[in-house]
Amino acid sequence: MSRNTLAASASIALLVAATGSAVAAAGTTRGAPPPRPASGLYLGADLSYVNEMDDCGAVFRKGGKPADPFALMKAAGGNLVRVRIWNDATWTRYSNPADVARTIRRAKAQGLQVLLDFHYSDDWADGDKQIAPVTWAKLGTDAQARALHDYTRKVLADLDAQGLMPELVQVGNETNPELMGGKKDRPIDWSRNARLLNAGIRAVHEAGAAGAIHPRVMLHIAQPENVLPWFDAATKAGVHGYDMIGVSYYKKWSSRSLAQLGQTLAEAHRRYKVDVLVVETAYPFTNAGEDASPNLLGPDTLIPGYPATPKGQLAYLTDLTRLVVANQGVGVVYWEPAWISSRCKTRWGTGSNWENAAWFDLRTHEALPAFDFMGLDYRAWGGARK
Q: Strands, DSSP E only, in 87-238?
């Protein structure tokens, strides 16, 4: 471990200790950690598309009447809304600071907690590629680490000033490749990667120490087969200061079964001593479509025993949550239940590529039974958890 890494570790330790002392002395006035859900489980969905769907004229319904997805989630027993943020996505007017604030405001108005997902990119960052923001791409590692740190802290400080500090923060989205420039199957420079990740983690802790809420910090890896190798390497490289591991699980893109997913979650919890959860998953309720845009989740994503029906979708989510809880996990977050078909165009066509995996029926956009998984009692599967 380098001198810089040791110094960073000491700084984080002092910061966390100081934050804890301040909270103990002042109650929950500033820098307080967010309360865990009463059930002990984070159950919810990524609702980053709702504002865009509303602006596109889409109407969500419950019992045939217009309904707000945030209110539907709360009424069904959900407690967490995930929202993504891009640095400077000039190709869209969504997932920028103003749109994110709009989403968080809607979530908090319903009493829902928020997970803010930093992509550290101007576009989609995922398990195949991590594209550096244009303004950071040509900087050296030191300058990139400073830029990432300062950007993260500013976004959080600006949200805190509006009373919108998130309870949870992701430092990166599906960071299987090296942050800001890595590609799938390309070796990771862990010296650089650790510096960037630690810069983001440190920024969250600093913003939290000064803010109304001290967010919990999540690192996020796509597909369970990648989790243990990545976190073993990250630990060896000195990545520290996080307290949650989020895992994406889409059977279409994973070589692991549901049972193997559970084994991975249990081992990650044991090995790294942090909370684990499935922070992205999805399942189709039909193989049909509402528009000409092809469905990303077709018959090739189905798991035996879970047909592409509304009941099959609910059964998948229910059994997945039971599996997660039984293996020391603390939640399930769905992606993306509100990306229904609308008149708006994307870069891939008019409408949606995900409407058959949403939580709303085709054409009528009536709420489906999938919402109900958030209100079920999971205590029998995880001790004291509900």
A: 113-118, 168-171, 216-222
Structure tokens at 9: 């570790």
Confidence at 32, pLDDT banded by 50, 70, 90: confident
The CATH number corresponding to 43-381 among 3.90.45.10, 3.90.70.10, 3.40.50.1100, 3.20.20.80 equals 3.20.20.80
Q: Is 280 a catalytic residue?
A: yes
- What is the pLDDT, as a whole number, of residue 259? 98
Q: pLDDT digits over 179-203, tens only?
A: 999 999 999 999 999 999 999 999 9
- CA-CA distance, 46 to 70, in Å (whole number)? 11
Give residues with Cβ within 8 angstroms of 68, minimum separation 6: 60, 106
The Cα 327–Cα 275 span in angstroms is 11
pTM here is 0.92
Please report, for the chain, the start and end positions of each structural domain, with discontinuous segments joined by +: 43-381
Contact between residue 337 and residue 286 where contact means Cβ atoms under 8 Å apart:
no
Active-site entry in 52, 167, 280, 290: 280
Closest CA to 386 of 80, 36, 62: 36
**Active-site position among 174, 178, 206, 336:** 174
What is each CA distance from 278 to 128, 154, 246, 248, 287, in whole angstroms? 19, 28, 6, 6, 24
**Lowest-pLDDT range, 11-25, 181-195, 242-256?**
11-25
Our CA angle for 252, 258, 261, nearest 5°, is: 95
290 is catalytic: no
Q: Token pair 């990667």 is at which residue?
A: 193
- Cα distances (angstroms) measured from residue 96 to each of 86, 121, 151, 199: 6, 11, 13, 21
